[in-house]
Design goal:
With 219 residues, this protein is α+β, with helices and mostly antiparallel strands. It folds into two domains: 33-101, Dna Ligase, domain 1 (2-Layer Sandwich); 105-217, ATP-grasp fold, B domain (D-amino Acid Aminotransferase, Chain A, domain 1, 2-Layer Sandwich), CATH 3.30.470.20. 30% of the residues lie in helices and 29% in strands. The protein is built from seven helices and ten strands. The chain has helices at 2-9, 17-26, 78-88, 131-135, 147-156, 160-164, 174-189, and strands at 34-38, 53-58, 71-75, 96-101, 107-116, 120-127, 138-142, 193-203, 208-210, 213-217. Strands 5, 6, 7, 8, 9 and 10 form a six-stranded antiparallel sheet that branches. Strands 1-4-2-3 form a four-stranded antiparallel sheet, with helices on one face. A hairpin with a 3-residue loop joins β5 and β6. The longest helix is centred in the C-terminal third of the chain and has 16 residues, at 174-189. It is globular and about 50 Å long.
């Protein structure tokens, strides 16, 4: 699948979110149901998506969407969606807009990988969203991971008790998390991908959803 992506790259090293999620979906990862619109394309009359929706500017050249006000959440109807899409289409370097069903609240984590010059393919795992930067509660491992490696990375973060269920919350689906960790480790261990960042990944008592994804190929 990565080889197919390389063939389609046509000199690009970074990809818009919908292309990365398409790859992840083919690999068996769960992503929100959505549809991508290029600039100039009109929204179809029937999206076949359930409100509320989220709309995000999409471009391989835009990494920090939130800093550009490039994410509109909680869109309740067609009027709000059309307004959001029209605003997002005007953002500089926008290739289009990705519209997705809003995911239910879950425990958010980050799963990433990078080709390090000294250590080779390295995996990273920790709390997602702003907590990854705020608390620095992160574990690292060498890719590719096996089941024991993935379990060790999960246990290594201080917040691992949240995954077990804490103060009335249900434990998350560790099997789904383990599969994501191992899958991402195989991507980064391929030697063709310089960096991959899934942040956040929402964990649930059953299953997990990759809510945002970035990936950069090796030059």
């Amino acid at each position: 699948m990565i080889s197919e992506l390389l063939q389609k790259a046509e000199g690009r090293t970074a990809f818009p979110e919908h292309e990365i999620k398409g790859l992840l979906k083919e690999m068996g990862f769960s992503v929100p149901k959505g549809i991508f619109f290029r600039i100039g394309e009109a929204l179809p009359q029937s999206l076949e998506l359930k409100y509320p929706l989220v709309a995000k500017v999409s471009s391989g050249e835009i990494s920090a969407k939130s800093e550009l006000h490039g994410v509109k959440t909680g869109l309740r109807d067609e009027r709000e969606l059309l307004h959001a899409v029209s605003e997002l289409m005007t953002i500089e370097k926008a290739e289009g807009v990705l519209v997705e069903e809003m995911a239910p609240p879950g425990l958010e984590v980050i799963v990433g990988g990078v080709l390090d010059r000294q250590f080779g393919p390295v995996m990273m795992f920790g709390l997602g969203g702003i907590f990854a930067e705020l608390f620095k509660d992160i574990s690292f491992g060498l890719a590719p991971l096996n089941t024991d490696d993935a379990d060790w990375m999960i246990r290594e973060i201080k917040a691992h008790r949240l995954l077990e269920g804490y103060r009335g919350s249900l434990p998350v689906d560790k099997d789904a998390l383990r599969e994501i960790l191992i899958g991402v480790s195989e991507i980064i261990a391929s030697g063709s991908v310089e960096e991959i960042d899934l942040n956040p990944v929402a964990l649930y008592p059953e299953g997990a959803l990759v809510l945002d994804a970035k990936m950069k190929l090796c030059v």
